[in-house]
Specification:
- The chain folds into three domains: about 65-135 and about 235-405, Phosphoenolpyruvate-binding domains (TIM Barrel); about 135-225, PK beta-barrel domain-like (M1 Pyruvate Kinase, Domain 3, Beta Barrel), CATH 2.40.33.10; about 420-555, Pyruvate kinase, C-terminal domain (Pyruvate Kinase, Chain: A, domain 1, 3-Layer(aba) Sandwich).
- Helix content is about 35%, strand content about 20%.
- It is built from 18 helices and 24 strands.
- β20 (about 440-445), α15 (about 450-460) and β21 (about 465-470) form a beta-alpha-beta unit.
- Strands 3-4-5-15-16-17-18-19 form an eight-stranded parallel beta barrel, surrounded by eight helices. The protein has a seven-stranded mixed β-sheet with strand order 6-14-10-11-12-8-9, covered by helices on one side. Strands 22-21-20-23-24 form a five-stranded mixed β-sheet, sandwiched between helices.
Length: about 550
């Protein structure tokens, strides 16, 4: 393991430098237990951007893949080239998010090609999540007032929002949704830029509403508008969303996130379109409206997973309720056997600074305590100064938190009883008990479609779950599930062959060493082609023999 000292850092232009305090984060930041080896990349030939201070962060040469919480990185100009993407994957990125609210489809296509190139070089599946913008209401264009970049409104000032599109000036603006005028009522609150500016509707006429400013600031072009107590009569899926969905199908994306979901019918609308296109892209419902929280059980049933989108949720609802809603949504998704993502402002300060705030570190850790499958970075990777550093930081927090959770595991903790796939869940619970009692190092199972791996994931094993499949789409999807490490493998003809195959693979990938014990799970109920139910405890570095494993063909299963 290489030691990193601040004196070895190369000064680069005027970009912020990462000092030794960041590298050690007040304790050993070596990744010795999470990454098999690290190297300090600190010369200007590394990284695509001159002055990218994140190049001086120790990045793993070969990852041991032991971090079980999945990391989603949002794509953008700070990370869209092949070299930076490769470094993001080394640092721990599992899923790449394409935010369709920004950029053209041509730009996203270029990024997608770069992702595929970097992932092929990294030789590990990486999922692609397309995030539909949804019916986000924004201000129209606003003229620069006195060099402020927009229109200044102070508390008590009037603001008129009109139906007809205009360039905003002199206390009058328009929005991207002209019919908004019909839905707003006197007494409704109008928040701009995530609530940084706040107005109250005090009068309404046919083609305009009159507001009073309560919290002032600068109104700028295209800033978002939230109406926390107004039901807006706009389509849940916009024309732009349909274009992006078509693009997602054409380019074989793995997940589509649907923004501003209000009820299960919104999910079904997108699902029907995907069926008509013969696409099995999975749908992630973004929960960011009070209406969605009220219909959450139906939304979970209709979707393939949840995203707790805390940005708009914290504007639409009481901000103090967001942590409670987050915990409840994670718990409900867990019980339904669906993956869940916690997102928004997790390491927000790292857009500009090389170190996160203590509150941000606690936020990431608490999301993992709640039981989330994945944690997401937005501006930190898309436009931030330290995209690789943000992923490394998130991975390190996850590693420390997971170790604590393993140490604090209570023997009397009640097993998760999922509402679906009861047979697979029963097998998973039994295997988890074996792992804990026998101190096993790995769980290996065949998961051709990804379904069994998802159920095993929800049981929160204290060790990684190696999921094998021949289906590239299933392999990519499984990267979103907590604790699951997907690998492509040829279907074994016999159980002996499977044991020898996974033994060699696990040692080659440095997931275990000679003498470590692992459990190998097979069975027709888990999708293992042509194989009877079996549970085999195997010691790494030893060869399977018919004598030792012959009884495994029995449907009752064995442990050798």
């Amino acid at each position: 393991m290489h030691q990193v000292s601040g004196r070895h850092l190369i000064e680069r232009d005027d970009r912020p430098q990462i000092d030794e305090d960041f590298l050690v984060m007040s304790h050993d930041f070596s990744y010795a237990n999470t990454r098999s080896s690290c190297a300090c990349v600190a010369d200007e030939t590394q990284g695509p951007y001159k002055g990218d201070a994140s190049a001086a962060i120790p990045i793993p040469v070969s990852s041991s893949l032991m971090i079980r919480t999945k990391i989603i990185a949002t794509m953008g100009p700070a990370c869209g080239d092949v070299e930076t993407l490769y470094r993001l994957f080394e640092a721990g990125t599992d899923v790449c998010r394409l935010n369709f609210s920004h950029g053209s489809l041509d730009q996203h296509l270029l990024t997608l090609r770069n992702i595929h190139e970097a992932a092929a070089r990294f030789d590990r599946p990486v999922a692609i999540l397309g995030d539909l913008g949804g019916p986000k209401i924004r201000l129209g264009p606003i003229a620069d007032q006195d060099g402020t970049g927009g229109m200044v409104r102070n508390p008590g000032d009037a603001l008129i929002i009109q139906r007809q599109p205009i360039t905003g000036a002199n206390g009058r603006v328009s929005t991207t949704v002209p019919t908004l005028i019909d839905d707003i009522r006197v007494g409704d609150r109008i928040y701009v830029e995530d609530g940084l500016l706040r107005f109250l509707c005090v009068d309404k006429q046919n083609d305009e509403i009159h507001c009073t400013c309560h919290v002032g600031g600068i109104l700028k072009s295209s800033k978002g508008i939230n109406l926390p107590n107004t039901r807006i009569n706009v389509p849940s899926i916009t024309d732009r969303d349909w274009q992006c969905a078509e693009w997602a199908v054409d380019n074989d994306l793995d997940y589509l996130a649907l923004s501003f979901v209000r009820n299960a019918a919104d999910i079904e609308l997108l699902r029907q379109y995907l069926r008509n296109r013969s696409s099995d892209i999975q749908i992630i419902a973004k929960i960011e409206k009070a209406e969605a929280v009220a219909d959450i059980d139906n939304i979970i049933a209709a979707s393939d997973g949840l995203m707790v989108a805390r940005g708009d949720l914290g504007v639409e609802m009481d901000l103090a309720q967001v942590p409670i809603i987050q915990k409840d949504l994670v718990r409900r998704a867990q019980a339904a056997g669906k993956p869940v993502i916690v997102a928004t402002q997790m390491l927000q300060s790292m857009i500009e600074h090389s170190t996160p705030t203590r509150a941000e570190v606690s936020d990431v850790a608490n999301a993992i305590f709640d039981g989330t499958d994945a944690i997401m970075l937005s501006g930190e990777t898309s436009v931030g100064k330290f995209p690789v550093g943000a992923v490394l930081t998130m991975a390190h927090i996850a590693d420390i938190t997971e170790k604590y959770l393993n140490e604090q595991a209570r023997p009397d903790a009640r097993p998760l009883r999922l509402q679906t796939m009861q047979l697979s869940n029963a097998i998973a619970r039994g295997v988890k008990q074996m792992v804990e009692d026998l101190k096993l190092k790995l769980v290996i199972l065949w998961s051709q479609t990804g379904g069994p791996a998802r159920i095993f994931s929800k049981n929160r094993f204290p060790v990684p779950i190696i999921a094998l499949s021949t289906d590239h789409r299933a392999l990519r999807r499984m990267t979103l599930h907590y604790g699951v490490i997907p690998f492509e493998a040829a279907p074994p003809a016999t159980l002996d062959e499977m044991v020898d195959q996974v033994d060699a693979m696990a040692r080659e990938k440095k997931l275990c060493t000679n003498g470590d014990r692992m459990v190998i799970v097979t069975g027709s109920s888990l999708g293992t082609p042509g194989m009877m139910n079996g549970v085999v405890v195997h010691t790494a570095g030893t060869r399977a023999t018919n004598a030792a494993l012959g009884a495994a063909a029995d449907a009752r299963g064995i442990a050798t």
